Amino acid sequence: MQEKYTKEEAKSLSVGLYVALALIAGTIFFTSQRKEIEHAESGDYYALNARFGRTDGLQIGDKVRLAGVTVGRVVGAKLDDHFNAIMTMELKDGIRIPDDSSASIVSSGIMGAKYIEIEPGGSEDYLQPGGEFSYTQDAMVIEELVDRIISIGKANRSKAEDKKIDEMEKEFDLN
């Protein structure tokens, strides 16, 4: 015996199948995109590591910049024995980084994407492929920054209020 569906049931069934196929296709697309980080420019690259206490928002595939120019990408992230993040980045061959340079996690604007900014040092010795930055600066967490600003504001407000109260007491004592 063959079941017959109403037009509404048939329409719902076909929409459900299309949605399922779209979800499967989207999943396949996104998982295939995360397998390998490709650089925008062809050529050879070498790896450097940087150790951070916090990497909030920095992800594999994010940019590495030097003087505002993109020179590479973040290609790996792992934890060390002391729960610090070791970020591996690949930089274009030919870009030599002094061994006293620093790597900082910064963002493009207040809510922008994170990236690693390299501040070159003045040393005449250079980091070798596979080397590690000696100086790093962790990611700034906006929520913590706002909390600090609010607490400073409260502390300053309290001092100003205390001063006004002292002045008012002095006026009353004179009368």
Structure description:
34% of the residues lie in helices and 26% in strands. The chain has 175 residues and is an alpha/beta fold. It has 3 domains: 1-35; 45-140, no CATH class; 141-175. It has a 7-stranded mixed sheet with strand order 1-4-3-2-6-5-7, with no helix packed on it. β2 and β3 (69-79) form a beta hairpin.
Topology overview:
Blueprint: H1 7-33, E1 45-52, E2 63-66, E3 69-79, E4 85-92, E5 102-107, E6 114-119, E7 135-137, H2 142-174
Parallel strand pairs: 2-6, 5-7
Antiparallel strand pairs: 1-4, 2-3, 3-4, 5-6
Keywords for this structure?
175 residues; alpha/beta; 3 domains; seven-stranded mixed β-sheet; 2 helices; 7 strands; 34% helix; 26% strand
How would you concisely characterize the structure shown here?
With 175 residues, the chain is of the alpha/beta class. It contains two helices and seven strands.
Q: Which residues sit in consecutive blocks of at least 5 with pLDDT less than 50?
A: none
Helix content bin? 25-40%
Q: Strand order, biggest sheet?
A: 1-4-3-2-6-5-7
Measured distance between first and last alpha carbons:
105 Å
Main sheet, how many strands, which sense, barrel?
Answer: 7 strands, mixed
Report the strand count.
7
Mean model confidence by pLDDT = 83
Number of domains: 3
Supply Rg: 28 Å
Give helix and strand order, one letter per element, not per position: HEEEEEEEH
What share of residues are in beta strands?
A: 25-35%
- Structural class from helices and strands? alpha/beta
Identify the overall geometry. Answer: flat
